[in-house]
Write a structure and sequence with these properties.
77% helix, mainly alpha, single chain, 287 residues
């Protein structure tokens, strides 16, 4: 697979995740966020196990350990983000979580010896400034929740770097099943610790669980693990910074949310960051 194809697939993953914001926001009126995450990943794990049941007998110890570690980072990201949201704003949460685009190349350099090129660095700068325009307001003082969300950004960055390290060495679908099952187990534990999980949910909430479980979890994470082998962790992080851009678009389209000049500038800067990274680094794009 050529890298531009992998990057296109990861951009599609960001689109899927961005399209879920309105759906999840409405669902959280009837269920706690950790309970929603638990049901979403339980459904995704069952769906993946059924879809790839013939591969289950091929599990190796490496698949389980690698998938488990990747799943731990992903679980920590969701749990820390949820805890942080209780004492900070959604806008700041979106920006701080998006800082994983800066953290990933640092970790990739330190842990994988994969420093980013000049193009991706320029793209990271543009995308980070764009995230600020898109998500931040004048409320910039630090809350306790901001520290939890910073932990979330590090966890998501470690997830991306870990996928880059382990996916070429394992069956990507088995790796996906283990990581999703790990989040299901840890997410369920967190839900029982902080909330009161229930099956008595509205049909609309179960529909949101089904959509996010199949499309935004099983499909999206399975696709990420499969294609990330053909690109770099820095490119992956840059492409995932498109998620708030797609979220803003779908919020405007479906929920009639307002997109002002500041938000449009932010979206534009993130897109410019993608273009810079691809054009300046595109000559290395084939695998």
């Amino acid at each position: 697979m050529k890298r531009w194809q992998a990057d296109l697939a990861l951009g599609f993953v960001a689109l899927i995740w961005g399209s879920t914001f309105v759906t999840v926001q409405n669902a959280l009126d009837a269920v706690g966020p950790l309970t929603f995450v638990a049901w979403r990943f339980i459904l995704a794990a069952v769906f993946m196990a059924i879809l790839f049941h013939r591969r289950l007998s091929r599990f190796t110890r490496r698949d389980v350990l690698a998938g488990g570690l990747i799943g731990v980072w992903l679980s920590m990201g969701y749990i820390f983000q949820t805890i942080g949201l209780q004492t900070t704003t959604t806008a700041k949460t979106g920006f701080i979580t998006g800082l994983s685009v800066v953290i990933v190349p640092v970790l990739a350099t330190l842990l994988l010896r994969k420093p980013p090129g000049r193009g991706p660095i320029m793209g990271i700068i543009a995308a980070t400034v764009g995230l600020g325009f898109l998500t931040l307001n004048t409320d910039l003082h630090i809350e306790t929740g901001d520290l939890w969300v910073m932990g979330c950004a590090f966890a998501f960055a470690l997830h991306i770097v870990s996928v880059s390290h382990f996916s070429p060495r394992s069956d990507p679908m088995l790796l996906s099943i283990v990581q999703i099952a790990t989040v299901a187990v840890l997410g369920t534990g967190a839900a029982f610790s902080f909330e009161t999980p229930t099956l008595d949910l509205p049909v609309e909430t179960w529909a949101a669980v089904a959509f996010t479980g199949v499309a935004a979890t099983a499909l999206a994470f399975g696709l990420q693990v499969y294609v990330q082998r053909f690109t770099t962790p820095t490119h992956t992080a840059l492409l995932f910074s498109l998620e708030p851009v797609f979220a803003a678009f779908f919020g405007w389209w479906w929920a009639h949310e307002k997109l002002g000049p500041k938000e449009l500038i932010g979206c534009g800067l993130i897109l410019v960051g993608m273009i810079i990274a691809e054009l300046r680094d595109g000559h290395k794009g084939e695998t």
